[in-house]
């Protein structure tokens, strides 16, 4: 609904005047109107707004004056919704929130998600479907705030995608006992899977099978890539694989092993892989080293440069060793760096040196 409101009023704003009643109500709530003018001036031009009513509902939920002002400044179109719409949205979100305190905290953090009151019937049906599926309420609230689009789908579409995933999981040799956990984990990691069509999912799985990945390996890739594989298409995957094959000068079987070791070779497009490869080569790293540890291609060039600089400062020569020390998350790297640092600083023990023991 927010989008519809916006699209109805973005034209001819210059000839219209700001609504004085709306302005007075906003000033009385200590809202910074200049912010609204800068962000979404069209909101101030509407003949009808529900400033006091919306503020009242937010206060009823436990928001103080500062919180109300912040919410309206960040999402000005909130005041164009009727109180009935907002109360319906409130009831919807309460299905997964522990209490109103948690709800108002979420609204403060993600006002736009809350004040998008499109397809409330779909939203409700999907919330109930996710609960039936076994997703915990805290995961569903995370979806509402970070992936709201999945709730606008008709529930049948989401069910269809889940059924396609379940069917393929079993066809690939996954067990009935593990299926629920696998699906819930996949969804928790990447709810955007639901924005794909069942056909796209099927096509991508078939592409992997045509490229001689065994059923077990396809399952392994799905889990490693957290379902992001469904956001690709067979053409881009084919190009990325061909690029890697040419760079590493390897056979189809060797390429397959590289992809299993580093699914990023499948996931990233050719320009991204090219840029990262060039960045590594500029640092004096060889193709042979990259082939040995292809996971370094999961890191951006900036991260690689930063890590090499830090390791070089400790006297660690990345060109002569393996690239494992560059790998991993920020936390992984800090652990590796700490180990190299403590090794460097540790004094060499001399067994014949006298021990200074105080009397």
What does this structure look like?
Mean pLDDT is 89; it is low at 1-7. The chain starts with a helix and ends in a 14-residue tail after the last helix. The protein has 3 domains: 1-117, no CATH class; 119-206 and 215-222, no CATH class; 232-342, no CATH class. Helix 11 (155-171) packs parallel to helix 13 (198-210). The protein has 359 residues and is an all-alpha fold. It has 21 helices and no strands. It is found in: Mitochondrion.
Q: Count of helical segments?
A: 21
Looking at how many chains there are and whether they match, the oligomeric state comes to: single chain
Number of separate structural domains: 3
Shape: globular
Give the DSSP E fraction (strand runs of 2 or more residues): under 5%
Mean pLDDT: 89
- The beta-strand count equals 0
Distance between the termini: 83 Å
Using only C-alpha atoms, the radius of gyration works out to 28 Å
Largest sheet: none
**H-E order:** HHHHHHHHHHHHHHHHHHHHH
Secondary structure: helix percent = 55-70%
**Derived structural class:** mainly alpha
What are the low-pLDDT stretches, counting only 5+ consecutive residues below 50?
A: 1-7
Feature tags:
21 helices; disordered N terminus; 359 residues; globular; mainly alpha; 0% strand; 3 domains; mitochondrion; 63% helix
Protein topology:
Blueprint: H1 2-9, H2 20-28, H3 33-40, H4 51-60, H5 65-74, H6 83-94, H7 100-109, H8 111-114, H9 120-133, H10 137-146, H11 155-171, H12 176-189, H13 198-210, H14 215-224, H15 234-248, H16 252-261, H17 264-267, H18 270-282, H19 287-292, H20 301-313, H21 330-345
């Amino acid at each position: 609904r927010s989008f519809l409101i916006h699209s109805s009023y973005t034209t001819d704003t210059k000839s219209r005047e700001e609504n004085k009643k709306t302005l007075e109500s906003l000033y009385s709530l200590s809202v910074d109107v200049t912010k609204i003018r800068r962000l979404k001036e069209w909101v101030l031009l509407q003949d009808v707004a529900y400033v006091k009513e919306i503020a009242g509902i937010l206060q009823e939920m436990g928001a103080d004056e500062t919180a109300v002002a912040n919410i309206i400044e960040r999402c000005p179109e909130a005041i164009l919704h009727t109180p009935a719409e907002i109360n319906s949205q409130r009831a919807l979100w309460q299905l997964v929130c522990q209490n109103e305190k948690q709800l108002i905290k979420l609204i403060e953090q993600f006002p736009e998600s809350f004040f998008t009151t499109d397809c409330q019937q779909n939203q409700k049906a999907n919330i109930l479907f996710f609960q039936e599926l076994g997703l915990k309420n805290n995961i569903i609230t995370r979806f509402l705030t970070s992936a709201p689009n999945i709730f606008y789908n008709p529930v049948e579409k989401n069910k269809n995608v889940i059924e396609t995933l379940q069917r393929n999981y079993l066809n690939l040799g996954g067990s009935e006992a593990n299926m629920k956990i696998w699906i819930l984990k996949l969804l928790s990691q990447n709810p955007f899977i639901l924005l794909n069509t069942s056909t796209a999912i099927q096509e991508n799985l078939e592409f992997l099978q045509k490229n001689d990945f065994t059923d077990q390996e396809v399952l392994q890739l799905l889990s490693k890539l957290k379902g992001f594989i469904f956001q690709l298409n067979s053409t881009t995957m084919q190009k990325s694989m061909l690029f890697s094959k040419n760079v590493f000068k390897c056979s189809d079987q060797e390429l397959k092993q590289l992809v299993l070791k580093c699914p990023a070779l499948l996931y990233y497009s050719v320009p991204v892989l090219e840029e990262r490869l060039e960045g590594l080569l500029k640092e004096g790293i060889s193709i042979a080293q990259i082939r040995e540890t292809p996971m370094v291609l999961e890191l951006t060039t900036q991260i690689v440069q930063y890590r090499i600089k830090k390791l070089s400062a400790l006297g660690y020569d990345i060109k002569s060793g393996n690239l494992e020390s560059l790998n991993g998350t920020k936390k992984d790297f800090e652990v590796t760096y700490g180990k190299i640092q403590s090794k460097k600083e540790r004094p060499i023990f001399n067994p014949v040196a006298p021990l200074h023991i105080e009397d």
